[in-house]
Amino acid sequence: FCGFIIIWIYSYMRGGDNGAISEVLIDILQTCLLTWLASRVIHVSEKFILYLRIAAYIFILRFLMDLFVFSRGSLENVYSQYAGYQLYIGFTMLLVPLLLQKKWYDYIAAVVCVILTLITGARGPFAFLVVSLIICMLLVSNEKRKLVKILPFIAIIAIVIIVYMKNIMSFFMGLVATGIGSSRTIQIIINGNFFTYLSGRQNMYPIAWDYIVKNPFLGLGFVNDRVYLAQATGEISSVIGSYAHNIFLEIGMQFGFVVGIIVILLIIRLVIETYKKQTTIENRLFYTTLLCSSVLPLLVSGSYLSSPMFYALLGYSFASSQRARNEIMLKGDL
Questions:
Q1: For the residues 24-33, what does the mean pLDDT come to?
Q2: Contact predicate 248/264, CB 8 Å
Q3: Tens digits of per-residue pLDDT, 153-186?
Q4: Do residues 92 and 293 make contact, with C-beta atoms less than 8 angstroms apart?
Q5: pTM of the model
Q6: Separation of alpha carbons 124 and 303, rounded Å
Q7: d(CA 133, CA 88)
Protein backbone atom coordinates (compact mmCIF):
# COMPACT_ATOMS: atom_id res chain seq x y z
CA PHE A 1 0.00 0.00 0.00
CA CYS A 2 3.04 2.25 0.19
CA GLY A 3 3.16 1.68 -3.56
CA PHE A 4 -0.43 2.90 -3.89
CA ILE A 5 0.46 6.08 -1.99
CA ILE A 6 3.45 6.70 -4.24
CA ILE A 7 1.34 6.15 -7.35
CA TRP A 8 -1.34 8.43 -5.93
CA ILE A 9 1.17 11.29 -5.45
CA TYR A 10 2.59 10.61 -8.88
CA SER A 11 -0.85 10.89 -10.44
CA TYR A 12 -1.49 14.22 -8.77
CA MET A 13 1.83 15.48 -10.15
CA ARG A 14 0.78 14.29 -13.60
CA GLY A 15 -2.39 16.39 -13.33
CA GLY A 16 -5.13 13.81 -13.16
CA ASP A 17 -8.75 13.93 -12.04
CA ASN A 18 -8.52 14.17 -8.26
CA GLY A 19 -12.17 13.27 -7.82
CA ALA A 20 -11.78 10.07 -9.81
CA ILE A 21 -8.63 9.15 -7.88
CA SER A 22 -10.33 9.72 -4.53
CA GLU A 23 -13.39 7.68 -5.52
CA VAL A 24 -11.31 4.70 -6.63
CA LEU A 25 -9.18 4.83 -3.47
CA ILE A 26 -12.32 4.90 -1.32
CA ASP A 27 -13.57 1.84 -3.18
CA ILE A 28 -10.25 0.12 -2.53
CA LEU A 29 -10.31 0.92 1.18
CA GLN A 30 -13.97 -0.03 1.69
CA THR A 31 -14.08 -3.36 -0.16
CA CYS A 32 -10.77 -4.46 -1.61
CA LEU A 33 -8.68 -3.91 1.53
CA LEU A 34 -11.08 -6.06 3.57
CA THR A 35 -10.92 -8.81 0.93
CA TRP A 36 -7.12 -8.61 0.95
CA LEU A 37 -6.95 -9.02 4.72
CA ALA A 38 -9.52 -11.83 4.81
CA SER A 39 -7.78 -13.81 2.06
CA ARG A 40 -4.49 -13.78 3.97
CA VAL A 41 -5.87 -16.02 6.72
CA ILE A 42 -7.52 -18.60 4.47
CA HIS A 43 -6.70 -22.19 5.31
CA VAL A 44 -8.29 -24.72 2.99
CA SER A 45 -9.99 -27.39 5.12
CA GLU A 46 -13.27 -29.29 5.33
CA LYS A 47 -14.81 -26.41 7.27
CA PHE A 48 -13.58 -23.87 4.72
CA ILE A 49 -15.08 -25.92 1.87
CA LEU A 50 -18.37 -25.84 3.78
CA TYR A 51 -18.09 -22.06 3.99
CA LEU A 52 -17.53 -21.92 0.23
CA ARG A 53 -20.72 -23.93 -0.32
CA ILE A 54 -22.72 -21.64 1.98
CA ALA A 55 -21.35 -18.52 0.29
CA ALA A 56 -22.23 -19.93 -3.15
CA TYR A 57 -25.80 -20.64 -2.04
CA ILE A 58 -26.09 -17.09 -0.68
CA PHE A 59 -25.09 -15.68 -4.08
CA ILE A 60 -27.75 -17.83 -5.78
CA LEU A 61 -30.48 -17.03 -3.24
CA ARG A 62 -29.75 -13.34 -3.45
CA PHE A 63 -30.36 -13.25 -7.19
CA LEU A 64 -33.49 -15.38 -6.81
CA MET A 65 -34.83 -12.85 -4.32
CA ASP A 66 -33.96 -9.96 -6.64
CA LEU A 67 -35.68 -11.72 -9.52
CA PHE A 68 -38.83 -13.11 -7.96
CA VAL A 69 -39.39 -10.78 -4.99
CA PHE A 70 -38.20 -7.35 -6.06
CA SER A 71 -38.75 -7.82 -9.83
CA ARG A 72 -41.91 -9.89 -9.24
CA GLY A 73 -40.71 -12.74 -11.43
CA SER A 74 -40.52 -10.76 -14.67
CA LEU A 75 -38.01 -12.34 -17.07
CA GLU A 76 -38.57 -9.89 -19.89
CA ASN A 77 -35.52 -7.88 -20.97
CA VAL A 78 -33.50 -8.85 -17.91
CA TYR A 79 -29.91 -7.61 -18.16
CA SER A 80 -27.46 -7.20 -15.31
CA GLN A 81 -23.74 -7.64 -15.83
CA TYR A 82 -23.18 -7.11 -12.11
CA ALA A 83 -25.59 -9.91 -11.17
CA GLY A 84 -24.02 -12.15 -13.81
CA TYR A 85 -20.54 -11.77 -12.35
CA GLN A 86 -21.86 -12.20 -8.80
CA LEU A 87 -23.40 -15.52 -9.86
CA TYR A 88 -20.15 -16.44 -11.59
CA ILE A 89 -18.21 -15.86 -8.37
CA GLY A 90 -20.76 -17.99 -6.52
CA PHE A 91 -20.37 -20.73 -9.14
CA THR A 92 -16.57 -20.79 -8.78
CA MET A 93 -16.98 -21.09 -5.01
CA LEU A 94 -19.35 -24.00 -5.58
CA LEU A 95 -16.85 -25.80 -7.84
CA VAL A 96 -14.64 -26.87 -4.92
CA PRO A 97 -17.29 -28.85 -2.99
CA LEU A 98 -18.99 -29.87 -6.26
CA LEU A 99 -15.95 -31.58 -7.78
CA LEU A 100 -14.45 -32.94 -4.55
CA GLN A 101 -17.46 -34.04 -2.51
CA LYS A 102 -20.00 -34.59 -5.33
CA LYS A 103 -23.20 -33.98 -3.36
CA TRP A 104 -26.48 -34.12 -5.29
CA TYR A 105 -27.66 -30.78 -3.97
CA ASP A 106 -24.49 -29.11 -5.24
CA TYR A 107 -25.25 -30.40 -8.74
CA ILE A 108 -28.74 -28.93 -8.53
CA ALA A 109 -27.34 -25.61 -7.28
CA ALA A 110 -24.82 -25.57 -10.14
CA VAL A 111 -27.54 -26.10 -12.76
CA VAL A 112 -29.66 -23.37 -11.18
CA CYS A 113 -26.65 -21.04 -11.19
CA VAL A 114 -26.04 -21.69 -14.90
CA ILE A 115 -29.68 -20.97 -15.76
CA LEU A 116 -29.71 -17.80 -13.66
CA THR A 117 -26.50 -16.62 -15.31
CA LEU A 118 -28.17 -17.04 -18.69
CA ILE A 119 -31.16 -15.07 -17.45
CA THR A 120 -28.97 -12.12 -16.42
CA GLY A 121 -28.19 -11.61 -20.11
CA ALA A 122 -24.45 -11.04 -19.55
CA ARG A 123 -22.49 -13.33 -21.86
CA GLY A 124 -19.10 -12.72 -20.19
CA PRO A 125 -20.03 -14.44 -16.90
CA PHE A 126 -21.67 -17.30 -18.80
CA ALA A 127 -18.59 -17.84 -20.97
CA PHE A 128 -16.22 -17.71 -18.00
CA LEU A 129 -18.49 -20.06 -16.08
CA VAL A 130 -18.13 -22.67 -18.82
CA VAL A 131 -14.36 -22.11 -19.13
CA SER A 132 -13.82 -22.34 -15.35
CA LEU A 133 -15.84 -25.55 -15.16
CA ILE A 134 -13.77 -27.16 -17.92
CA ILE A 135 -10.45 -26.05 -16.38
CA CYS A 136 -11.38 -27.34 -12.92
CA MET A 137 -12.74 -30.63 -14.28
CA LEU A 138 -9.49 -31.21 -16.17
CA LEU A 139 -7.48 -30.34 -13.05
CA VAL A 140 -9.38 -32.78 -10.83
CA SER A 141 -9.30 -35.49 -13.50
CA ASN A 142 -5.56 -35.05 -13.92
CA GLU A 143 -4.99 -35.16 -10.15
CA LYS A 144 -7.00 -38.39 -9.90
CA ARG A 145 -5.28 -39.79 -13.02
CA LYS A 146 -8.57 -39.90 -14.93
CA LEU A 147 -7.67 -37.31 -17.56
CA VAL A 148 -7.12 -39.96 -20.25
CA LYS A 149 -10.60 -41.35 -19.56
CA ILE A 150 -12.39 -37.99 -19.57
CA LEU A 151 -10.79 -36.52 -22.73
CA PRO A 152 -12.67 -38.89 -25.11
CA PHE A 153 -15.90 -37.98 -23.29
CA ILE A 154 -15.21 -34.27 -23.82
CA ALA A 155 -14.35 -34.92 -27.48
CA ILE A 156 -17.64 -36.79 -28.01
CA ILE A 157 -19.61 -33.91 -26.46
CA ALA A 158 -17.81 -31.41 -28.72
CA ILE A 159 -18.58 -33.51 -31.82
CA VAL A 160 -22.25 -33.83 -30.83
CA ILE A 161 -22.51 -30.06 -30.33
CA ILE A 162 -20.97 -29.39 -33.76
CA VAL A 163 -23.10 -31.98 -35.58
CA TYR A 164 -26.37 -30.99 -33.92
CA MET A 165 -25.73 -27.24 -33.79
CA LYS A 166 -28.95 -26.47 -35.71
CA ASN A 167 -30.99 -28.56 -33.30
CA ILE A 168 -29.38 -26.81 -30.36
CA MET A 169 -30.20 -23.44 -31.88
CA SER A 170 -33.79 -24.61 -32.36
CA PHE A 171 -33.85 -25.49 -28.67
CA PHE A 172 -32.69 -21.98 -27.83
CA MET A 173 -35.38 -20.61 -30.11
CA GLY A 174 -37.89 -22.60 -28.07
CA LEU A 175 -36.53 -20.97 -24.94
CA VAL A 176 -37.00 -17.57 -26.53
CA ALA A 177 -40.70 -18.37 -26.88
CA THR A 178 -40.78 -18.74 -23.09
CA GLY A 179 -39.84 -16.11 -20.54
CA ILE A 180 -36.42 -17.65 -19.84
CA GLY A 181 -35.15 -17.30 -23.37
CA SER A 182 -35.63 -13.56 -23.64
CA SER A 183 -32.22 -12.94 -22.16
CA ARG A 184 -29.61 -10.99 -24.08
CA THR A 185 -27.10 -13.86 -23.91
CA ILE A 186 -29.39 -16.36 -25.64
CA GLN A 187 -30.33 -13.80 -28.29
CA ILE A 188 -26.62 -13.23 -29.05
CA ILE A 189 -26.04 -17.00 -29.26
CA ILE A 190 -28.93 -17.41 -31.68
CA ASN A 191 -27.77 -14.51 -33.84
CA GLY A 192 -24.25 -15.93 -33.97
CA ASN A 193 -22.69 -12.79 -32.47
CA PHE A 194 -21.38 -14.29 -29.24
CA PHE A 195 -17.71 -13.62 -30.11
CA THR A 196 -18.08 -10.83 -32.66
CA TYR A 197 -20.29 -8.34 -30.80
CA LEU A 198 -17.88 -6.46 -28.50
CA SER A 199 -20.22 -3.85 -26.99
CA GLY A 200 -18.02 -0.92 -28.01
CA ARG A 201 -14.73 -2.49 -26.88
CA GLN A 202 -13.58 -2.62 -30.51
CA ASN A 203 -13.40 1.19 -30.32
CA MET A 204 -11.86 1.42 -26.85
CA TYR A 205 -9.01 -1.10 -27.28
CA PRO A 206 -7.25 0.76 -30.14
CA ILE A 207 -7.50 4.02 -28.21
CA ALA A 208 -5.99 2.42 -25.11
CA TRP A 209 -3.16 0.89 -27.12
CA ASP A 210 -2.48 4.24 -28.80
CA TYR A 211 -2.03 5.91 -25.39
CA ILE A 212 0.37 3.13 -24.34
CA VAL A 213 2.47 3.65 -27.47
CA LYS A 214 2.55 7.43 -26.91
CA ASN A 215 3.51 7.04 -23.21
CA PRO A 216 5.76 3.95 -23.16
CA PHE A 217 7.88 4.75 -20.09
CA LEU A 218 5.79 6.57 -17.45
CA GLY A 219 2.25 5.94 -18.65
CA LEU A 220 -0.65 8.22 -17.82
CA GLY A 221 -0.70 7.72 -14.07
CA PHE A 222 -2.94 6.13 -11.48
CA VAL A 223 -6.61 6.39 -12.62
CA ASN A 224 -5.63 9.02 -15.21
CA ASP A 225 -6.22 6.41 -17.90
CA ARG A 226 -9.95 6.71 -17.17
CA VAL A 227 -9.90 10.46 -17.69
CA TYR A 228 -8.17 10.16 -21.06
CA LEU A 229 -10.47 7.34 -22.19
CA ALA A 230 -13.54 9.33 -21.14
CA GLN A 231 -12.32 12.28 -23.19
CA ALA A 232 -11.47 10.12 -26.21
CA THR A 233 -14.80 8.27 -26.20
CA GLY A 234 -16.89 11.32 -25.35
CA GLU A 235 -18.13 9.86 -22.04
CA ILE A 236 -16.99 12.72 -19.83
CA SER A 237 -19.93 12.25 -17.47
CA SER A 238 -18.75 8.74 -16.58
CA VAL A 239 -15.04 8.96 -15.82
CA ILE A 240 -15.13 6.13 -13.25
CA GLY A 241 -16.54 3.64 -15.75
CA SER A 242 -14.19 4.62 -18.58
CA TYR A 243 -11.48 2.02 -18.00
CA ALA A 244 -9.90 -0.14 -20.69
CA HIS A 245 -11.94 -3.28 -19.88
CA ASN A 246 -8.72 -5.31 -20.05
CA ILE A 247 -6.23 -5.68 -17.22
CA PHE A 248 -3.18 -5.68 -19.51
CA LEU A 249 -4.24 -2.52 -21.34
CA GLU A 250 -5.21 -0.86 -18.06
CA ILE A 251 -1.83 -1.55 -16.46
CA GLY A 252 -0.09 -0.46 -19.66
CA MET A 253 -1.97 2.84 -19.75
CA GLN A 254 -1.26 3.57 -16.10
CA PHE A 255 2.41 2.54 -15.91
CA GLY A 256 3.56 2.65 -19.53
CA PHE A 257 4.74 -0.20 -21.71
CA VAL A 258 8.09 -0.78 -19.97
CA VAL A 259 7.01 -0.61 -16.32
CA GLY A 260 3.67 -2.23 -17.21
CA ILE A 261 5.42 -5.31 -18.60
CA ILE A 262 7.44 -5.58 -15.39
CA VAL A 263 4.30 -5.34 -13.24
CA ILE A 264 2.49 -7.97 -15.33
CA LEU A 265 5.48 -10.34 -15.22
CA LEU A 266 5.74 -9.95 -11.43
CA ILE A 267 2.04 -10.84 -11.05
CA ILE A 268 2.41 -13.86 -13.33
CA ARG A 269 5.49 -15.02 -11.41
CA LEU A 270 3.65 -14.63 -8.11
CA VAL A 271 0.72 -16.72 -9.39
CA ILE A 272 2.97 -19.48 -10.76
CA GLU A 273 5.07 -19.68 -7.61
CA THR A 274 1.95 -19.72 -5.42
CA TYR A 275 0.37 -22.52 -7.45
CA LYS A 276 3.52 -24.60 -7.02
CA LYS A 277 3.22 -24.21 -3.25
CA GLN A 278 -0.31 -25.70 -3.18
CA THR A 279 0.45 -29.23 -2.00
CA THR A 280 -3.01 -30.85 -1.97
CA ILE A 281 -5.79 -31.22 -4.54
CA GLU A 282 -8.06 -29.13 -2.31
CA ASN A 283 -5.57 -26.25 -2.26
CA ARG A 284 -4.83 -26.45 -5.97
CA LEU A 285 -8.51 -26.56 -6.89
CA PHE A 286 -9.35 -23.63 -4.62
CA TYR A 287 -6.46 -21.56 -5.99
CA THR A 288 -7.53 -22.38 -9.55
CA THR A 289 -11.10 -21.20 -8.86
CA LEU A 290 -9.73 -18.07 -7.18
CA LEU A 291 -7.51 -17.43 -10.20
CA CYS A 292 -10.41 -17.93 -12.63
CA SER A 293 -12.86 -15.71 -10.73
CA SER A 294 -10.31 -12.90 -10.30
CA VAL A 295 -8.45 -12.80 -13.63
CA LEU A 296 -10.85 -14.04 -16.33
CA PRO A 297 -13.41 -11.22 -15.86
CA LEU A 298 -10.62 -8.63 -15.97
CA LEU A 299 -9.70 -9.72 -19.50
CA VAL A 300 -12.88 -8.18 -20.95
CA SER A 301 -14.62 -6.27 -18.16
CA GLY A 302 -14.08 -4.51 -14.88
CA SER A 303 -11.00 -2.84 -13.43
CA TYR A 304 -8.35 -4.54 -11.32
CA LEU A 305 -8.23 -1.46 -9.09
CA SER A 306 -11.75 -2.06 -7.78
CA SER A 307 -11.97 -5.85 -8.10
CA PRO A 308 -12.25 -7.51 -4.65
CA MET A 309 -11.49 -10.94 -6.15
CA PHE A 310 -8.22 -9.65 -7.63
CA TYR A 311 -7.16 -8.41 -4.20
CA ALA A 312 -8.19 -11.76 -2.75
CA LEU A 313 -5.89 -13.46 -5.27
CA LEU A 314 -2.97 -11.21 -4.37
CA GLY A 315 -3.62 -11.47 -0.62
CA TYR A 316 -3.79 -15.27 -0.67
CA SER A 317 -0.73 -15.48 -2.94
CA PHE A 318 1.43 -13.21 -0.77
CA ALA A 319 0.30 -15.03 2.38
CA SER A 320 1.17 -18.42 0.84
CA SER A 321 4.62 -17.14 -0.12
CA GLN A 322 5.13 -15.77 3.39
CA ARG A 323 4.11 -19.08 4.99
CA ALA A 324 6.49 -20.96 2.70
CA ARG A 325 9.38 -18.65 3.67
CA ASN A 326 8.54 -19.04 7.34
CA GLU A 327 8.58 -22.84 7.02
CA ILE A 328 11.99 -22.72 5.32
CA MET A 329 13.37 -20.44 8.07
CA LEU A 330 11.90 -22.72 10.75
CA LYS A 331 13.53 -25.79 9.23
CA GLY A 332 16.82 -23.88 9.01
CA ASP A 333 16.66 -23.03 12.72
CA LEU A 334 16.00 -26.67 13.60
A1: 75
A2: yes
A3: 667 777 776 676 656 666 665 655 555 545 666 6
A4: yes
A5: 0.83
A6: 14
A7: 11
Taking only the tens place, the pLDDT of each residue in 205-218 is 888 899 899 888 87
Q: Is 100 left (phi over 0), alpha (psi -120 to 50) or beta?
A: alpha
Strands (DSSP E) contained in 104-166 are none
User: Among 126, 35, 125, which residue's Cα sits nearest to residue 85?
Assistant: 125
Give 119's contacts (C-beta < 8 A, 6+ positions apart): 67, 75, 78, 180, 183
Say if CB 311 and CB 42 are below 8 A apart: no
Rounded CA gap, 26 and 31, in Å?
9
Q: CA-CA distance, 176 to 183, in Å (whole number)?
A: 8
Q: Which residues contact 189 (CB under 8 A, 6 or more apart)?
A: 123, 169, 172
**320 three-state secondary structure:** helix
Residues 6+ apart with CB under 8 A from 329: none
Q: How far apart are alpha carbons 303 and 243 in whole angstroms?
A: 7
DSSP 180: G
Rg (CA), the chain: 22
Cβ neighbours of residue 215 under 8 Å, at least 6 residues apart? 253, 256
Render 234-293 in DSSP notation, one character per residue. T-GGGSTT-S-SSHHHHHHHHHHHHHHHHHHHHHHHHHHHHHHT--SHHHHHHHHHHHHH
Amino acid found at 94: L
